[in-house]
Amino acid sequence: MSERQDSPQPHDRPLPLPEHSEPALPTDRVTDPTGAAMPLVPAGSSESSGPVAPPEPGDDHGKRSDDQSSDHRSGGWAAGRPESRPGAVEQITLRGPAELADALPYMLGYHPTDSIVLVALHGDRGRFGGRVRLGIPRSAREWPSVADQLAEALVEGGERRGTRPDGIVAFLCQDPAEGESALRVMERLRPLAQRLRTACGALDVPVYEALCVSDGRYWSYCCPDSRCCPPDGTPLVAPGTSVMAAAATYAGIQVRGSLRDFQARLRPWDRGTRAADEQLRALDEAGAALVPAILGEQGRDGVREDTLRLAEELMRRLAQNPPGGDSAAADTHDDGLLGHREAASVILGLQDRLTRDRAAEWMEGPGAPAALRLWRALSRRCVGAYVEHSAAPLTLAGWVSWSTGDEPAARIALGLALEVDPEYVFARLLHQACNENLDPESLRQCLRKEREVRVAAEEGAVASARPPEPGAVRTRTRTRTRLRTRAGAGDGGDGGRRTGAPRAARVRPAAGARRADASRPAAGSAPTKAARTVGGVPSSGLRAAGRGEEGDRTESRT
């Protein structure tokens, strides 16, 4: 089924892939061809989280020493805000680290939790550029390698787009654990902040500011002045009162909860609950019945069609029952619409790669919202030992989110898919394509073409298997009889002279009919060259989405 190896030990396991993208992420976005960030403008046109710059060198409290420390009471960071006239952009200023920390959720589309975020700065005024985000590793032994990876990802990503960063702002965001204070979190993460500064400095890109955000407060790792950065931290500005919040509201950019909220919609149910135990039993029973059929050549096609038919039925059910309330209430509503056995059958059926690729065709139009709700619900039901089975629905959820313009949700879903299965090729390709700001339309076109080819082949097979019409049989019989009559007359010595047979007896109509029949592929014939694809998705399309990655491999699981 899947091509997997034994799980590596913690110190040997591969590093997770960071999120890497341009700054702001509303649904309607236009990327600057140069790769540079663009200032905030009203929703529906181009957008960005706005540029940012360190304090000017001439400011008394904006000077930096060799260790990059600074005083933040004067100076500030520049940010873009739309003017009243269309197409014009006015510069505003984020004054100090408080407003800089307040701007972070608008860059990501959510409040980061347990995250390292690096933001690139460009030019003399420090326009916001690309950014990378990765969860904070629990083990401090991984911090050096993670810091090196993130710094290289941000700098090399900018170089590929022709805009090497001139500076970096680093954020460490983590709420206190039970019995831990925010101050303790800041001190515990100080070595990580220092390692990030060292890794960026090794690439000749200075870290202008490094902030720790915890429990509604922030600390600066770069500023030693207690007048602006007291040891107990500084409260964040009140939500909705900052200049960045005003610009984002004008532009239609919303912050939709926290990273933890996004992930909760996709993570499996906790063990020990009645629903989780019932779902686990249903998965065990479905596995005993479906896995042998999926592994066998004879039953695999039948399981595939049954899975897709059931998934369509579940999507219709969800579409007919729209959710209400907040995200938690909506997910509870959707969970109640799915039966345990139904969910188990679809989850196991999606472990077949071709089935999953067929399901990826529900990516746009009126059916996309219901498909996204279904993939989220199925991801939550991959409980217990079946958690790795969630890679398929998580990847589909990420794909539909990316296809419909929700890049923050897409990155989170694809990141979770790679968290449960780092070798899941389809998720890696989509994650890379999303991070490199590729257009999902290229993959949508491939899937549409594949669907058209498959439907045409199925219709042709049905037509060729249909018995010929009685009239057509009689016409061909009379034609062959007349031909034999003329041939016999010629053989009898008339020198090949025309007989009295009418010209209407020629075989052109019948021959045309035969040519039309011959153009239809017979049932069970080999697919045409256009129909040969990799896993239901043309391999060229997957390589385009992944910038030259290898095509997908077999990822079915027992």
- Strand-residue proportion: 5-15%
Rg over CA atoms, rounded to whole Å, is 31 Å
* Number of alpha- plus pi-helical segments: 18
Low-confidence stretches: 1-15, 22-90, 473-558
Structural class: alpha+beta
Biased composition (Basic residues): 475-485
Pfam family, one: DUF4192
Biased composition (Basic and acidic residues): 1-22, 58-74, 546-558
Biased composition (Low complexity): 458-474, 499-527
What is the element layout, followed by pairings?
Layout: E1 19-21, E2 77-82, E3 89-94, H1 96-108, E4 115-122, E5 127-135, H2 143-160, E6 167-173, H3 182-202, E7 207-214, E8 217-220, E9 234-235, H4 243-251, H5 259-264, H6 274-295, H7 297-320, H8 327-335, H9 340-349, H10 353-359, H11 368-380, H12 391-403, H13 407-420, H14 425-435, H15 441-465, H16 470-494, H17 508-518, H18 539-545
Helix pairs in contact: 1-4, 2-3, 6-7, 6-9, 7-9, 7-10, 7-11, 11-12, 12-13, 12-14, 13-14, 15-18
